[in-house]
């Protein structure tokens, strides 16, 4: 009985170790209340296993280390599966989240990651080696740009499901 519990714990630890974390941003945020100012730290973290799974989390706490830990936990909860074909994405995809807009295009093998900022971090942790990304929105906000990238990758996942369903109907 105890051996089974130990094996489960080992598997969980191995699973957590497989994921890499990248800190996108740490900001000092202040809430002004009736009693004065409340100082906290907000962390934005990207988690990925470089094999098609990636997540993004934002959280705040009174201490920087605590904020990073909470954001990492949030990112692990928000993991998505990214379809990768020949080290790139299968389709071109456009997404909009708030003021941020992004266009992700597949690239030929060997072209590399043509992206910057949060998009580059998310794509590299997802395991995408060849991609062209363009942020079309005017915002420089890293959190919004990371969220729009995640939204585009989710759309990509949905397009793959639709593509698979339609190809199955035509070839019974």
Describe how the helices and strands are arranged.
Layout: H1 2-18, E1 20-33, E2 36-48, E3 53-61, H2 64-77, E4 80-81, E5 93-97, E6 100-106, E7 113-114, H3 117-126, E8 131-135, H4 142-170
Helix pairs in contact: 3-4
Name the descriptors.
single chain; 172 residues; alpha+beta; Double Stranded RNA Binding Domain; 2 domains; four-stranded mixed β-sheet; 4 helices; 8 strands; 41% helix
Envelope shape:
globular
Q: Work out the radius of gyration.
A: 19 Å
DSSP strand content? 25-35%
The arrangement of helices and strands along the chain is: HEEEHEEEEHEH
Question: Overall mean pLDDT score?
Answer: 89
Largest sheet: 4 strands, antiparallel
CATH topology group of the largest domain = Ribosomal Protein S5, domain 2
Task: Please give the domain count.
Answer: 2
Q: In angstroms, what separates the terminal alpha carbons?
A: 47 Å
- Provide the helix percentage: 40-55%
CATH architecture of the largest domain: 2-Layer Sandwich
Structural category is alpha+beta
**Regions with pLDDT < 50 over 5+ consecutive residues?**
none
Spatial sequence of strands, sheet with the most strands: 1-2-3-4
> Treating each run of at least 4 consecutive H or I residues as one helix, how many helices?
4
């Amino acid at each position: 009985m105890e051996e089974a519990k130990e094996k489960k714990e080992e598997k969980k630890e191995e699973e957590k170790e497989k994921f890499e974390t990248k800190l996108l941003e740490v900001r000092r945020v202040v809430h002004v209340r009736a009693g004065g100012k409340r100082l906290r730290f907000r962390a934005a973290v990207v988690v990925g296993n470089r094999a098609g799974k990636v997540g993004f989390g934002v959280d705040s706490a009174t201490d920087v280390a605590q904020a990073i830990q909470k954001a990492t936990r949030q990112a692990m909860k928000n993991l998505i599966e990214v379809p990768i074909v020949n080290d790139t994405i299968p389709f071109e995809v456009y997404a909009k989240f708030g003021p941020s807009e992004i266009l992700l295009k597949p690239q030929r093998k060997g072209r590399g990651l043509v992206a910057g900022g949060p998009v580059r971090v998310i794509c590299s942790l997802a395991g995408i080696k060849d991609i062209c990304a363009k942020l079309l929105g005017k915002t420089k906000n890293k959190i919004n740009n990371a969220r729009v990238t995640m939204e585009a990758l989710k759309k990509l996942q949905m397009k793959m499901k639709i593509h698979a369903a339609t190809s199955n109907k035509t070839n019974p």
